[in-house]
Design a protein that fits this description.
Nuclear Transport Factor 2, Chain: A, 185 residues, elongated, 3-hydroxyacyl-CoA dehydrogenase, DUF6459, 4 helices, single chain, alpha+beta
Length: 185
Amino acid sequence: MNALLSPVLDRPALERPTRERPTAARPPLRLVPPRVAPPSRPVPPPDLPAFEPRTLDAELEAADDELRTDSGIGEDARLLCAKLALCVIEILAGARPLDQLGRWVSDSVFIQLLRRTVIAARSREVTGDEARRPRVRVGEPLLNRLGDSVVEAVVMIHQPARSRAVALRLERHRARWRATAITVL
């Protein structure tokens, strides 16, 4: 049994057996075109949707028009709250300009979001991060009607690293819904 485990003493331990390769003339290597044509544009990963430019005014205007005619809390109020919450998260991430949200929020909310946007931009500048559109999944809004002209809602925003809650208060202002309070937790 010891004979099988002992090293071979005929050749040095660091030397490996070499095999001589034939030096026959081989044709030179050449590039061959691929069998399948590459895609004309990059293909997004399968788990992420392709980026599509968003028009906030068109989405919110459609939801707001239908909400104006609905006296109860319907799917339109849910849609409006979900879109506003998503826009607030994108604004704080630096992926969307705050001006797009100006007509949908009160002046005090606009100033509050402006302050938070400046703080977030300074934080990204210090850490060297760049502003990018966050990967989020918007949860189902939970709505509570406080009167004919007031709706409060909570929307969960799920990101890969964490989840956030966005609390909204919508009030009717000149036949249109406006957010008079937004809190991101």
